[in-house]
Design goal:
Layout lengths: L2 H16 L9 H8 L5 E8 L7 H15 L3 E8 L1 H14 L5 E4 L6 H5 L7 H4 L26 E3 L2 E5 H6 L8 H6 L1 H6 L5 E2 L6 H15 L1 H9 L8 H15 L15 H6 L5 E4 L9 E2 L4 E2 L3 H4 L2 E4 L12 E6 L2 E4 L8 H13 L2 H10 L16 H9 L4 E3 L2 H4 L2 H15 L5 H18 L2
Parallel strand pairs: 1-2, 1-3, 6-7, 11-13
Antiparallel strand pairs: 3-12, 4-11, 5-7, 5-10, 8-9
Helix pairs in contact: 3-16, 10-12, 10-19, 12-20, 19-20
């Protein structure tokens, strides 16, 4: 897909999200009348949820509990997991042929098994009568070549969060180029500050939130397409240059090896406390800094959120794509393909997925900072400053691939591990490139 077409799709998505849209109508009332006195349908759900995240209690109350209250003919048995435990459980369920009725999933990457083995139903026919209620970019086919889930919205896996108040106090400005960022290192070190914080103890973090952006800048989507088509290799100069630039971040003092000892959520209070002026993560990180309705407290209080800016990594020397960040369709929920067509369970599962992608549900996620809406007409006057900042983040940016969304796990896992090895000084960029190419060749051969 050309960059021009991506810009058009992104602009269409953003415009659609701001238009007045269709009003959600719950199909539950009709279904309840039809079900009469039958026993409730039991739906098992595997859900991705950070139990400690701000807004989690509100999501459970206003989305999950509200559905059960309004649909007494359906009983939800929900299993909430987060990060690696969630992914491990999903793969275990898939391998055993025991997937829940409804499950949280990605458009590719960590959910590749669900897509390529068609373990999720094709939601295309279900969504067709209501297609106009969504941005068209949200409904493009996913990794399996069909619509396995309806994304909550667009997601940028790379954001550089900037504490502008901290920069001002040190006489520094938001860098426009990598050279300007590197020049800040002595000043920040002298002040006892890190330069960039990352919670990269889990190996996916660097690849998804930083390196995918670097590859987008230095290799470009066309270059990655050539690698995927076998017309270029990971060992060719562009990809090796991307690995070498990543290695230079540690050599230049822009990144510290301490990022590999920092847990994913452990980084949140460090940034909130001003331990560094920059944090690199995905756009979803916003929710961790907003007010938790259950405590009325925030890691970054609303009055201080005006000092936090969401931007992207500065210009990289030799980049072929400018002003870009790695982007992907957001997450969503799929329905188990084994559920019989036309059954009460299928109707109940679709009713749940409709609700989970409804205007009301997407408004809650927008207000809690967990997702930027894919449905038209989702607006709110309750957004905290940082959530407002997120809603304006995408304007004018070019979207490039997130590697774990376009590569098979057998290929991107060696990248994940290799990035940690480079950062720790265990492997060289050339060695990692060779390892990834070997993994790609083996995976390609297995597909024939």
């Amino acid at each position: 897909m050309s960059h021009a077409r991506k810009r058009i799709m992104l602009a269409g998505w953003l415009a659609a999200a701001l238009l007045a849209g269709a009003v959600w109508t719950n199909a539950g009332a009709l279904a309840q009348g039809q079900q009469g006195s039958q026993e409730p349908v039991v739906l098992t759900v595997l859900n991705f949820l950070d139990a400690t995240g701000p807004g989690t209690e509100r999501e459970i109350k206003e989305i999950w509990n509200a559905f059960e209250r309004n649909n007494p003919d359906i009983k939800i048995v929900r299993e909430d997991l987060f990060l690696e435990p969630f992914h491990q459980k999903t793969e275990a369920y898939a391998a055993a042929g025991r997937l829940p009725d409804v499950f949280y999933m990605w458009p590719g990457g960590r959910s590749m098994t669900l897509h390529t083995q068609r373990l999720a139903k094709d939601l295309g026919p279900f969504v067709e009568p209501m297609r106009d209620e969504f941005s068209e970019a949200a409904l493009v086919p996913q990794a399996g070549g069909y619509l396995a889930m309806i994304p909550f919205g667009l997601s940028s896996s790379h954001v550089m969060y900037v504490n502008t108040a901290l920069l001002d106090s040190l006489g520094l400005q938001v860098p426009r180029t990598y050279e300007e960022l590197k020049a800040m290192v002595p000043t920040l070190r002298a002040a006892g500050k890190e330069v960039i914080l990352m919670g990269a103890q889990d190996d996916w973090v660097v690849q998804s939130t930083l390196f995918s952006m670097i590859v987008g800048r230095l290799v470009g989507d066309e270059g990655m397409d050539a690698i995927l088509a076998g017309k270029a290799r990971f060992t060719d100069e562009p990809f090796v240059k991307a690995l070498e630039f990543y290695a230079s971040l540690f050599e230049d003092g822009v990144l510290s090896r301490r990022i590999f000892q920092t847990g994913y959520n452990e980084v949140n209070p460090l940034f909130a406390q001003g331990k560094a002026p920059f944090l690199i993560d995905g756009d979803w990180k916003v929710r961790n800094f907003l007010t938790d309705p259950s405590t009325d407290e925030a890691l970054i209080p609303p009055a201080e959120q005006k000092h936090i800016r969401m931007t992207i990594f500065p210009a990289i020397p030799g980049e072929v794509t400018h002003n870009s960040t790695s982007m992907v369709q957001g997450d969503g929920y799929g329905i188990n393909a084994k559920i019989p067509t036309g059954s009460r369970k299928e109707e109940a599962a679709w009713r749940l997925v409709q609700w989970l992608t409804s205007t009301e549900a997407q408004r809650v996620r927008m207000e809690t900072g967990s997702a930027f809406p894919s449905r038209k007409g989702v607006t709110s006057d309750r957004l905290e400053p940082l959530a407002q900042e997120r809603s304006q983040f995408y304007g004018g940016l070019t979207g490039t691939y997130v590697l774990d969304n376009v590569l098979d796990p057998k290929v991107y896992v060696p990248i994940n591990v290799g990035l940690q090895e480079i950062g720790l000084g265990i492997s060289s960029p050339r060695q990692v490139a060779e390892s990834v190419q070997k993994a790609f060749d083996a995976w390609k051969a297995s597909q024939q």
